[in-house]
Prior knowledge:
alpha/beta; five-stranded parallel sheet; two-stranded antiparallel sheet
Amino acid sequence: MSKVKINEEDEDSGDNSSSENSSETSDDSVEIEIPFKVGMWDLKQCDPKRCTGRKLMKLELIDKLGMSAMFNGIVLTPIATESVSAKDYQIIAKYGVAVVDCSWARLNDTPFHKLQHRKAKKNLRLLPYLVAANPVNYGHPSKLSCVEALGAAMYIAGFKKIGDLFMSKFNWGPTFIRLNQELFDGYAKCKDGREIVAYQNQYLDQLDNDHCASNSIESSSESSEDYEELTV
Length: 232
């Protein structure tokens, strides 16, 4: 458990084109308590200058975990079969949340199966559909950085203020929240992983329908213009 200062900045300061290395604490900051452990397995696959997990370590917001470390909290990993949800609130409150810091380009080389003891594998979790705001994968679905993954899990599980704290340490962090606000609001109302997946699928279906409707309107407009050109 620790107390960390959080800046009370206007969210308009988020800019995806800026470097994530800017995170100075102002005199107007207030203390917020982190009542649980936050961990990370660092597989050293990422660019150290862009690694959000390593920056969190320097800020003493995250603990580095050894390959054989026992972690009883929620572990965010792509090999999980259940989505993080509000049902995980008590587990995170008691044991914390952890993430695997690895490269999206090297998922097949990552030994996820070695990072969690058999007894705790029931706490492995996926994240639902979200859009990245980090400078490397801005706008790409699901390709989240470590801090985005942790912040998202905290938001969904019911630790919004702590999620805001983590995202505030990166000047593009508030943009991540804004990009996904509708999704966060929807996911937060779901009681478990099944409802999370159902909401996600409904949201994606609506995106597809909106995309098809937009294409249909554009196609109709183009056809009308072509017809007018032919009859002039």
